[in-house]
TrEMBL record:
Name listed for the protein in its UniProt record: DUF3159 domain-containing protein
Keyword set includes Kinase: no
Spans traversing the lipid bilayer: 57-75, 81-99, 106-124, 144-166, 178-202, 214-236
InterPro entries: UCP010219
Pfam families in the record: DUF3159
Length: 241
């Protein structure tokens, strides 16, 4: 018995978006909220500054980890170190709520900080405060690497959605090559964090682990963001007026 043909699609109902369109749109939306729009004529310094969230974003990213590191290194008091770290994340989130500014990043930081603290308190091992970060780096790095290897680079999906060309960049050899290597570079950043920090975790060296986490955070994120911005702007030059 032959299979029945699919019923005709109602032209008034839009087709279901493809997975790559959904992913690209989500990445593009996140980039726009962070102030990273390649179509926006602005300086690289301004883009990197906005991408890091300005002074507030830098403090939210650095202070909880820095306070944990200092308190634990000096006093070896795990509950106090964790409590102050989580307390700072709560203060930052509350400040954003009061100011009615975007809270996604602050809430994400609060959840991550709280989960890390809960794990460390449960095990009694200070180094377990860094485990959620390892998981995040592993997931991000794996997703980026896989996307590049299968020809659907996440950087390309985000840039294509931002520039309004969807996945047309895949037909352009130059764009496809640039997006491939940009995605590989981001994957390598996450892999490098794991390669350097995991041995310190297994050695139980909390001070060195916390220090390197800070060093391999924003100080490496900022130049990678600048390189990505410049590369995308080169692929999509602004029209001459």
């Amino acid at each position: 018995m032959s299979a029945e043909p699919d019923p005709p699609r109602d032209p008034l109902i839009p087709p279901e978006p493809a997975p790559h369109d959904v992913i690209g749109g989500a990445l593009a939306g996140a980039a726009r909220r962070a102030g990273l729009d390649p179509a926006d004529a602005t300086t690289t310094r301004d883009v990197v500054w906005r991408g890091m969230g300005g002074w507030r974003g830098i403090l939210e990213s650095v202070l909880p980890s820095l306070v944990f590191l200092l308190v634990y290194t000096v006093w070896q008091d795990l509950p106090w170190a964790l409590g102050l770290s989580v307390g700072l994340a709560v203060v930052f989130t509350a400040a954003r709520l009061i100011a009615r500014s975007p809270v996604q990043a602050a809430i994400g930081g609060l959840v991550a900080t709280g989960a890390a603290a809960a794990l460390a308190l449960w095990t009694g091992r200070a180094e377990d405060n860094f485990v959620p970060g390892f998981i995040t780096n592993g997931l991000y790095g794996s997703a980026l690497l896989i996307s590049a290897l299968v020809g659907w680079s996440l950087i390309g999906l985000a840039a294509g959605a931002l520039m309004g060309e969807g996945t047309a960049w895949r037909a352009d050899r130059r764009k496809r090559r640039v997006f491939f290597w940009l995605t590989i570079a981001w994957a390598a950043l996450f892999a490098a964090r794991l390669a350097v920090q995991l041995p310190l975790y297994f050695a139980g060296d909390v001070t060195a682990l916390g220090t390197l986490k800070l060093i391999m955070g924003l100080p490496l994120f900022a130049p990678m963001l600048a390189v990505t911005w410049l590369a995308v702007r080169a692929l999509y030059p602004a029209p001459r007026t």
